[in-house]
Description:
With 86 residues, this protein is α+β, with helices and mostly antiparallel strands. It contains 4 helices and 3 strands; from the N terminus they run E-H-H-E-E-H-H. The chain has 2 domains: 2-38, YefM-like domain (YefM-like fold), CATH 3.40.1620.10; 41-85.
Amino acid sequence: MQSLTANTAKTKFGDLLMKVQREPVQICKNGSPVAVVMSCEEYAQLEALKLQFIKMRFAAAEKDIAENNLVDGETFFNQLEQDMLD
């Protein structure tokens, strides 16, 4: 992934828009990453994957409910978050 400073991203915004059509670009401010810019197509694909994952986890939860293997909401969402990070 390419990396640009916030100042470069600002002054060469048109170039940034062209770069993100090929791959995401990381934006750094004061040497620390603060954002990633990506194409609309790539963002839509990422959102679709997240939705698919959440649907899969809810389907598993429905099975657990049917089998009376219940957990509280906080535990469910903590596990969901952890699974997304893994």
